[in-house]
Every structure is written in C-alpha cells, then in structure tokens.
Amino acid sequence: MSDTNMTGAATSLTVAVEKSNDPFGPGDLLYWKCEYEKAKEYFQAVLNQPAITLIESARCCNSLGATNAKLQNYEEALDNYHKQLNLLLKLQTSEKITNDIIKCYMSIGKVYCLKQDYVEAINYYNRALGLVLTITSASDLKSTIYKDLANLYTKTQKFDLATKYFTKALEIDQQQLGEDHPKFGQTYANMGAMCCRQENYEQALDYFLKAREIWEKSLTSSHIYVESMNKTIQKVQSKLSMYIS
C-alpha cells in the first residue's frame, strides 16, 4: 500500500471513529470477525481521539490488550493492560471499577500464562483473588479465578492447591448454577486432566465420565465437547487396561 493510500485509510478511520455513536462497536466487530490487525488499528485510532475520557481510554487499552494477545504480541498486550490498570486506579472507586481492576489483573495473568510464565500468572491471579474477596456480589468472578488458579497450579504440578481451588469453584457454582450447567462439565474435565498429570487414571476417568454425563444433558450428543470427551475417555480407558494387563 502506498503512503497516500495509508494516509487516506487512517483519515477515513479517524472520521469513522468521530462519527460513531458507539466508538468501540466497529472495533469489537472486527475483533469478533478475527480481523485483529484491523481491530488494533481501529482501537488505536479511538485512543488517539483528543476528547476521549479516562474510562474510555481504559476500555480502549483493554481492547488493544485483547487484540495484541490474539496476535501473539504479548509484550504489547502486557503494556496495554498495565496502562489500563493505571487508568482504572486513577478513577473514583466503585464496585464496577473494582470489578474492572480484578478483570485487568486476570487479563495480565492470562497473557503471562500464554507466555508460559506460570509463576507470574499465578501472582496476578492472586492479586485478583485478594481483591475479589472484598466484594460480596462477585461470586461468578470468584469462581472463574478459582478455576483459572487451579489450572495454573496443575501446570506447575502443585496438585493439592489445584484440587483446593477446583473444589472452591464447584462449591460456588453449585450455589449459583443448575446441576447440569455446562460449566460443571468443564470443571470436571479440567480435574480429570489434573489427575492425568498425576497418572491417576482411575480418578481421571471418573471425572471425565462426570463431564460427559453433564454435557450430554446440557448440550447435544454431537457437540464438539462431547465428541472430544469421548476420545479422551477412550484414551484413558486404554491406559487403564494396559495397567491391568
């Protein structure tokens, strides 16, 4: 693309941002269409608008962080999320802002997880956990943090801690969700994966069977989760038969 065309495209983008009633909508659409480079360009144009507020800047940094994470630009993503965090900390404290700070810590943790820096990921998730425990109405967020921490502790082979946090998440979800909610299936599937890491295939099979049973009730039998779990169960059963023989 020539410099003239690039300038024209940038100008058109700026005009589109200025005219849009929802300055984030077009960028969000590009993101969900997996057009991440275009989404990044759009959100950057929003961020460069002179009249943008602090809360809008924070929202924009969050979107840029998510987009850069998809592009595997992990250092840029971390920079975006840290800028979002700094902006949120400047705003007057409210439950919504606190929730946004918690989610920002989680987003930073997820990027470190993608970088396979599990120690730093756990560090940020624990910051999120410390904050979420101060909010009485954040059960769903708390459950998500427990599950993500459990998966991180599985990766670092701290299985007692993983089990502890999976159990805490299940306790919350049992109070909030129906007994056959698909989220239970995912938690049991992750617990099965944890047991496989320990080579405890009998317990893993039990969790995988629970996951499949829930998904068969809450999803269709042809759903990709059910089909994938069927293959996982077959593999575990094969391992068990090898041990028995």
From TrEMBL:
The keyword Metal-binding does not apply. Residues 64-91 form a coiled coil. Pfam families: TPR_12, TPR_7. TPR repeats lie at residues 102-135, 143-176, 185-218. Keywords: Coiled coil, Repeat, TPR repeat. It comes from the Eukaryota. SMART domains: TPR. This is Uncharacterized protein.
